Structure formats: structure tokens, C-alpha cells
Structure prediction request, 74 residues.
Amino acid sequence: MRITLKACRYAILTALINGFLALALMLLVEFALSGNLVVTGPYLMAGLLVALVIFIAQFWRQLRLGRCESREQV
Prediction:
């Protein structure tokens, strides 16, 4: 259980950071192209999708790495 919580914590942190950076980059490009800074639904959905994909991948990776470390200690 402890390995799962640790993996979830790292995955959430990584997903939030990368989702925010993706949203900021999309807004920066939108501002550079159109000259106005408007947060629309598709940008928010794209940022959430990026965060979700990264969360799933990082959770699986961290969980797998944590279980490999626990097997080596035994």
C-alpha cells in the first residue's frame, strides 16, 4: 500500500507540472499568433488530457520501479 501511495504522489506531482506547462505553452502560442490571451475550453481540455496521460504513464512507471526496489531489498 505504501508503494502505491508513493507512486501516486509522484505521478500526480509530475502530471500537474507538465499539464500546467503544456497549458502555458498553448496560451503563449495563442497570444503570439492572435495577440489576445483568451483561455478557451479546448485549451483547458488539452491541458487536462496531457495531465491525464502523463499521470497514467508516471503512475505505472513509479509503481513498477517501486515494486522492483522492494523485491531487491528482500
The chain has a mean pLDDT of 86. The chain is about 90% helix and 0% strand. Residues 15 and 55 are 5 Å apart (CA to CA).
